[in-house]
Amino acid sequence: MAFEYGAQKLNIRNPFRFEGLVRSIRGLLLLVIGVYLLIQIQPLLGTDKPRAWMSLVIGGLFVVGGLKALGGGLFQVMRFFVGRAAPASLAKNVAREAVNEREPTLYNAKMLHNMLMSKSNPTFVEPLGWFARAVHSVFPNLIVTPWPIRNVAQNLAMKLTKSLVAIAAFLVATLVVTMVFSGTEGADVGSTVISLILQASLLIYLGLLWVKLGNPLSRSNMTSLGNTTSKGLALVIIGSIALPILTAQGWIAFWDNMHPSSRQDLAIMMPLFEPVFRTGTLLTLTLFCALATAAIATVLIKARIRLVPIATSSSEMNNSWRFDLHPRQIFTTLRDLVLMQKRQQELPNRVYLDSNDTGDANRENEQFNGDMLVEIQPLVEEKEEPQSLRWARAGGTVAAQVILFIGALLLWFGADRIMDHVYALDQIQATRIDVAQAFNLLFIPAGNTAALLLASLLLLGFGRTLARICHLFWAEIFFKSNLFDLHCEGTVMRATHYRGADRHSASSEQDVFSFDATYFALATEAVSSTFAVSGQHNLEQPRYLLSLAPCDGFINSVMGDLEEQFRRRNEEIQNEKQADREQRLDYIRQEQEARRTGDMTAQGLVSPERRASLEADVVTSQDREKIARWEGDAGDN
């Protein structure tokens, strides 16, 4: 869909201003911190070169991330360019003046006709799979939302389900480990080690599960409905039972092969080794962020479901016509006169179907039929959003940017603390200290730093996920338009009309057509939506039909104007016939007057001598038979 500039605007607002403003603030703060870290390189080079290089790396990351966030945010705040061809068509536009459209379409002309005829909406397709059906059972009206929202809802529901199953599996695994080590030698040490392994596995699984969220506005999410399967749940359940047992058996075999002195040393070190890990804190952070993300997304989805009243109705009209016109006038008049007057903002109508065979209907009693499906230019419609949707969307956007900023700060602090551990390691190597002091000086602080870095990655992932979810609800723009569908079929009648003919001069002939037709018209007021993106292709996305409402006034206006055009043209033809009849009557009166007076020339009529000359040129029946024999026609008989 090419950008078409026009002085008359479509009044489509920029939906990303608030989101871009908050994003720009985060980018500016990151940029300031990054420049500060880069400025600190010069004084650190003389005193602490390793920390200077670390400042260079972290400062460079902050500058790059800050510029990206600041540029993207300012891009969203700036003017939202919308061409005259926006939004995308519902189906392929076959109008003569149609632009070169590149955006995908979810419908075709046949689907749109069936929607109007059957009072149904194929946009709301049945969910696939038992899990998707379960989600739609919990949210029964989720089926009437656009596909990107349905895909996000199913994805979040699957993430929640997998998280609950993983937590339940962790509890089951802990119970299994306790049962396996019950009464065995080294049970305390083995139970601690396996518990730490299971906690780390749960943390990694939940982190990867929640921070991994594809772009909801990707082309695949817009043009297809996701199919959520239960394979992941099955693997989690199987792993929760099999993995602890296998790990426990492996530890028992490892413990049996250890030397008694090594067992004693390991038992002594385990209480010191356990505080190194912060899996419990990280798990708490992960669960809190996951619940917050799910709660905000749930509020947004439920508020969006109630935003558009769903209807699947259309207006109908059928009747019969009989006019002294060629049937081609039905579709040309409808397209180029009647519907052209219904245009919005002086934009061409979207023609999805214009098929008829009236151009070849030139013989007596020849049948014709045709179809036309037109959409009037859609106009943007501002929906009255509920307060829950506004506050959840704005609050979620701010929370996402704050979480991203905190995650970046934790990454800075964690990276800065790495150099302290390097210096502590040098101190331990230079002095002889016992194991407990080494753990207190190095390993426990290093564990805290590792937990800090993991927490930063988790926050960055959760912030990115929450920002993408909120962006989806900023991007939706609603439109209202009228769809008109006409099917007409009938029979052509042809007659020869003699104009200016009389008994003395040659006849002039004119073929006059009339049609006897039956039509069936459908019309609806459609509410549709599309998802805008920031960039050059802002509205080149598929459009979803959400609601179809009857529009009796529109269809009455269209058909009334069409019949009025037919009557006007029919009256013109009848007036021409009446004028010709009056001309013939006037000629007869002149001829009678000339005969009465005997002055044919004075009356502008043909003299008797001229009439005899014309009659002499007429071919007789006998001569016509001779000519036919000469041409070979008689031989065929």
Automatic annotation (TrEMBL):
Sorted UniProt keywords: Membrane, Transmembrane, Transmembrane helix
Region feature (Disordered): 590-637
Residue stretches of biased makeup (Basic and acidic residues): 622-637
Segments passing through the bilayer: 21-41, 53-75, 164-183, 189-211, 232-255, 275-301, 391-415, 435-462
Protein name per UniProt: Uncharacterized protein
Organism: Marinobacter daepoensis
